[in-house]
Write a structure and sequence with these properties.
single chain, 879 residues, mainly beta, Laminin, two-stranded antiparallel sheet, 80 strands, 40% strand, disulfide bond, EGF-like domain, Fibrillin-1-like, repeat
């Protein structure tokens, strides 16, 4: 088959062949000009068209079209097209919008209160695009919004002020609760001294809650909602402290007759006075009978008498003694004062014999002592036979006289007959006489008497055994001794007595006065009738043969001395001396109030309190003893957390401490209640946060979708923080105030949580041009130009492979011929093959008329084994 020409545009026949030329708007792409390609004037010159127009290449030429939004001739002038003025305003389909023309385009602008591509209503309340105050609620309306005052506020919505509920009624009706107005609300809180939730309040017993509220001298008294510190019994309020009451000075609570009041710290005691003792049963002081207990009195044990009185006693001397009863000396009754009568009565010669505590009367010879013991009466010797008359006896005062009978005469006191006896018949025991009968008789000598009826036998008279007429013996009948002698008798005295001048009367010997006694130290000689005794001096007691000191203080104790005195033993006695802190004479000792004297050493911050016999320096409340000083007590350190109630902290002060409430608490320090700052306008929680009350404070917790940045809660851009994880596949994240949305991406459809890919290739809406194939992609699609086409703008235009690849497009001996969507490689003249492989034709071997079958050129194929037919040069030329 003969090919006549392969020109794709203009073929011009010439002798022995032909020539190919390109039309206007095309250019050669092969050496032999057999292939013409369209010239893309738009690519070669960007200024071919006017402003606001674009160049569009066409086969062999080009075109200038006004851009979208413009109208006119793209070669001459393109004017802006006002899309908003046309009857079919493109924005008419979008509610709540108006059309806004712009150069070459237009936009649909949403009216106020709307936004988005479809001008949806803006929820200004959610987006924050509202001007409602914080105390008002925002209510969205179509295209706008309104502000309404929140509960607890009043106003027009734009200006809302707090309603003071506490002023409008009794909202808190529990005893002990108080209404507290807050910004926009109120709350009920328990008043100081109460605890509870505000709705129900119970009294706090501060006294049990804190045992250290009051001082040691005070008693805590709980009251309704409060407490008070009252002074303990025995104390009185003095400013802020309680000081001791001196009950003894105030009202004399003790029996003044029997007791002494002694003040003590916070009380007093009643002490029995000297001479009284405490009766524990009757609770009174009763008289001490000092006379019953010898150790309680100092009266002389031998010569004194004790007489008890109420609260005391006196000492008196026994009869016959004189003194104060403690020391008694014998009264010498025999030496009375000059104007006093003698105790012994009788004739001259009556003798008074003094004895210890008494006296005796001794009568002179011829007298006897009457039964009264003090009167001497005459002894009638004649009647008692106490005479020595031989004949007649005549009694006289104090004696007797003898007289002789008639014819008798007294010869040497003996009556003798005037006639003398021839023989002495009396044997010397008497005088012989001749009686009237002329018989001799004997007138017995003194001390003799006639023997019976004999007148001449004189026998010895035993004067000691013969009683006198008054019944007494011739010698001292009490203290005397009688010794008979021949013709007489002899009077003596018993030991301790001595005869007086008449030798018949015995008088006591005063051994004490005469110094013939033997008494030890600390004893005194006391004369007795016929003897003496050694009596221990007052204050001493017999111990064997000696006298030892009596320790009256040890035996009687404090009973010897009065209140405030102590007993000091001395030799033979004792002394009462005032104790330290008392002043007086020992019998009466008064307490010294050292607090009134500058000598008390009470330091600063202390109070001097007088005590019996001393004083005390009591540190003032809030101070403690450190050596001799009163130093401040750090109650905060001493009591620790117990010093103050919950919610308070301890602040030490000089002499005390305070319990201020911690920040976030309110109260009196004893009871501090947590302040719910969330109910107060003072909490600084910003917008988009919630206030949470905590003990003593509060927390501003950002609402969901917000995070803390400084003091504010700002919106969390979840789209940034979570990235692609915020939304599911096929959705994109759109941050909102406090949250986010997940709308489906373009090319996806769903609810945002699940978005499914839209296969746009199945929809008529895909804009793939001719010579392209639609390929679905996740969320979109691609218009892929078919093989042999390339993207130019939105279109797929043929690729001139002969231009892009040049000589490399085809193998040796072939030339490139572009086709729509591909290209061919026909063998050059003189060659034969499939285009991929072209072999040189040896025309010389072919007959002139031989026709050579030609295989069509293949594109993008490997060389084939097509048969080669030889054709003549002529045939080739003619073709």
């Amino acid at each position: 088959m003969l090919q006549l020409s392969d020109c794709n545009q203009t073929c011009t026949n010439i002798i022995n062949g032909y020539t190919c030329s390109c039309k206007d708007g095309y250019r050669n792409v092969t050496m032999d000009s057999h292939r013409c390609e369209d010239i893309d004037e738009c690519a070669l010159n960007s200024s071919l068209c006017v402003k606001n127009a674009h160049c569009v290449n066409t086969p062999g030429h080009y075109d200038c079209s006004c851009n979208a939004g413009f109208r006119g001739n793209g070669f001459i002038d393109c004017q802006d097209e006002d899309e908003c003025s046309v009857k079919n305003n493109p924005c008419l389909s979008v509610n709540n919008s108006f059309c806004n023309n712009s150069i070459g385009s237009y936009s649909c602008i949403c009216t106020s209160g709307y936004n988005g591509t479809t001008c949806e209503d803006i929820n200004e309340c959610i987006s924050g695009q509202n001007n409602c105050p914080v105390n008002a609620n925002c209510t969205n309306t179509i295209g706008s919004y309104t502000c309404v005052c929140k509960l607890g506020y009043e106003g027009n919505g734009w200006n809302c002020k707090d309603i003071d509920e506490c002023m409008t009624g009794n909202h808190c009706n529990s005893n002990g609760s108080e209404c507290m107005n807050t910004d926009g609300s109120y709350y009920c809180t328990c008043a100081l001294g109460f605890t509870g939730n505000g709705t129900y309040c119970a009294d706090i017993n501060e006294c049990t809650a804190n045992p250290y509220l009051c001082q040691d001298t005070e008693e805590c008294m709980n009251g309704f909602g409060s407490y008070k510190c009252e002074c303990l019994p025995g104390y009185i309020r003095n400013g802020t402290i309680c000081t001791d009451v001196d009950e003894c000075k105030k009202n004399q609570p003790c029996d003044a007759n029997t007791m002494v009041c002694s003040n003590t710290i916070g009380s007093y005691t009643c002490l029995c006075k000297a001479g009284y003792q405490f009766d524990s049963t009757a609770r009174i002081c009763t008289d001490t009978d000092e006379c019953v207990v010898s150790s309680l009195n100092n009266c002389s044990r031998t010569t004194g008498l004790c007489q008890n009185f109420d609260g005391s006693f006196t000492c008196q001397c026994k009869a016959g003694y004189t003194g104060d009863g403690v020391t008694c000396t014998d009264i010498d009754e025999c030496n009375p004062p000059a104007n006093a009568t003698q105790p012994c009565k009788g004739p001259v010669g009556v003798r008074c014999n003094n004895t210890i505590g008494h006296y005796t009367c001794s009568c002179p010879f011829g007298y006897y002592l009457d039964s009264d013991g003090t009167t001497c009466k005459d002894v009638d010797e004649c009647i008692r036979g106490l005479h020595n008359c031989t004949q007649n006896c005549t009694n006289i005062e104090g004696g007797f006289t003898c007289s002789c009978f008639a014819r008798f005469s007294s010869v040497n006191g003996t009556c003798k007959q005037n006639q003398t006896c021839v023989t002495d018949v009396c044997n010397g025991t008497g005088d012989c006489y001749i009686d009237e009968t002329t018989l001799p008789g004997c007138s017995c000598n003194s001390g003799y008497t006639l023997n019976g009826t004999s007148k001449t036998q004189c026998i010895n008279i035993d004067e000691c055994s013969l009683p006198m007429a008054d019944g007494q013996t011739p010698c001292d009948s009490i203290y005397g001794t009688c010794t008979d002698t021949i013709g007489s008798f002899k009077c003596g005295c018993v030991a301790g007595y001595a005869a007086v001048s008449d030798s018949r009367t015995c008088q006591d010997v005063d051994e004490c006065q005469s110094g013939i006694y033997n008494c030890t130290q600390y004893s005194t000689c006391h004369n007795l009738d016929g003897n003496y005794t050694c009596i221990c001096n007052s204050g001493y007691v017999q111990s064997g043969e000696t006298c030892i000191d009596v320790d009256e203080c040890e035996k009687a104790g404090s009973a010897l001395c009065g209140h405030g005195a102590y007993c000091a033993n001395t030799l033979g006695s004792y002394a009462c001396r005032c104790l330290v802190g008392y002043v007086g004479n020992g019998t009466v000792c008064l307490d010294v109030d050292e607090c009134l004297l500058p000598s008390n050493n009470c330091s600063a911050n202390s109070t001097c309190t007088n005590t019996p016999g001393s004083y005390q320096c009591q540190c003032d409340a809030g101070f403690q003893k450190t050596g001799e000083m009163c130093t401040d007590v750090d109650e905060c350190l001493k009591f620790g957390s117990a010093a103050c109630g919950q919610g308070a902290y301890c602040v030490n002060t000089v002499g005390s401490y305070n319990c201020p409430c911690l920040a976030g608490y309110i109260g009196n320090g004893t009871v501090c209640l947590d302040v719910d700052e969330c109910l107060l306008p003072s909490n600084n929680c910003s917008a988009n946060s919630t206030c949470k009350n905590t003990p003593g404070s509060f927390q501003c917790q950002c609402d969901a979708g917000f995070q803390k940045t400084g003091e504010k809660c700002v919106d969390v851009n979840e789209c940034q923080t979570s990235g692609s994880a915020a939304c599911g596949p096929g959705a994109y994240c759109v941050n909102t105030v406090g949250s986010y949305n997940c709308p489906c991406l373009a090319g996806y459809i769903g609810n945002g949580t699940v978005c499914l890919d839209v296969d746009e290739c199945l929809l008529p809406s895909n804009n793939c041009s001719a010579n392209s194939t639609c390929k679905n992609t996740p969320g979109s699609f691609q218009c892929q130009c078919d093989a042999g086409f390339q993207k130019t703008g939105e279109k797929c235009v043929d690729v001139n492979e002969c231009q892009t690849s040049g000589s490399a497009a085809c193998g040796p001996g072939a030339y490139c011929v572009n086709t729509v969507g591909s290209y061919n490689c026909p063998c050059l003249a003189g060659y034969i093959g499939n285009g991929t492989l072209c072999l040189d034709v040896d025309e010389c071997l072919l007959p002139a008329t031989t026709a050579v079958p030609i295989q069509p050129a293949k594109t993008h194929q490997a060389p084939s084994n097509a048969s080669v037919m030889l054709v003549s040069k002529k045939l080739e030329r003619n073709a």
